[in-house]
Design a protein that fits this description.
Layout: E1 6-15, H1 21-29, E2 48-51, E3 55-61, E4 64-74, H2 85-100, E5 107-113, H3 120-134, E6 142-147, H4 149-154, H5 159-165, H6 168-176, E7 181-183, H7 192-208
Parallel strand pairs: 1-4, 1-5, 5-6, 6-7
Antiparallel strand pairs: 2-4, 3-4
């Protein structure tokens, strides 16, 4: 990979119902591969893989521009309105092995809503679920994406004041993943420039992890 001018990054999105996880996947891919809509029940019922086209001018490695390809695995939410924890866990495990078994997973993206408080019980169950899927090194391979950041901004919060006012549960989670987090605006679809910024941040997290895969 070091001699190649092209790189594929493998990502998987996790989150609670209506957290915006499928929307995040679509934004990263620049597509509408994953169904995403407002619903009183869980929308995603099976894992699916989306692939981007080759992206130029987004990231560099060792001083050279890389052609970047992005692969995103969308997963059913947990908890789920129609599937048990075991069903979701087994489905995701199988999909991770099938799609990323050879190349490995670069980052698991835990999608949380910035406009809703993260409670201890919710955090505990979410972390326990991801740990069951990814194993004891899950912290090294997990980043937090905070969606609906526009609503927090409308309420008068900057990123700094938001984190200053955040619950100890959220701050503890961000600390455990070594502050790998990104705020995302859900008010408008991600334009090309914004998408490039988010991908650069994710690529930076991967670089910080020495390009290791899970």
């Amino acid at each position: 990979m070091a001699d190649s001018n092209e790189m594929t990054i493998n990502l998987a999105v996790f989150g609670r119902p209506q957290s915006g996880k499928s929307t995040v996947g679509n934004s990263l891919l620049g597509s509408s591969d994953f169904e995403s809509r407002c619903s009183p029940s869980s929308v995603t019922t099976q894992c699916s893989l989306g692939r981007s086209c080759c992206l130029a001018g987004v990231v560099r490695r060792n001083g050279c521009e890389l052609a970047l390809r992005v692969r995103v695995l969308d997963t059913p939410s947990y908890p789920h309105s129609a599937l048990s924890k075991e069903q979701v866990r087994d489905m995701v495990r199988s999909a991770l092995a099938h799609h990323f078994g050879k190349e490995g997973l670069h980052l698991a993206l835990l999608v949380l809503r910035a406009d809703l408080p993260l409670c201890p019980d919710e955090s505990h169950h979410t972390i326990q679920f991801i740990q069951e899927l990814l194993g004891p090194t899950w912290k090294d391979f997990t980043a937090v994406l905070l969606t609906h950041a526009d609503k927090a901004e409308e309420a008068g919060f900057t990123e700094e004041t938001y984190l200053h006012s955040a619950s100890s549960t959220l701050l503890s989670l961000l600390s455990s993943v070594e502050h790998k987090y990104i705020f995302l605006d859900n008010q408008k679809s991600m334009i090309k420039e914004e998408r490039a910024i988010v991908l650069r941040k994710l690529f930076h997290f991967i670089q910080q992890n020495n390009y290791q895969v899970l």
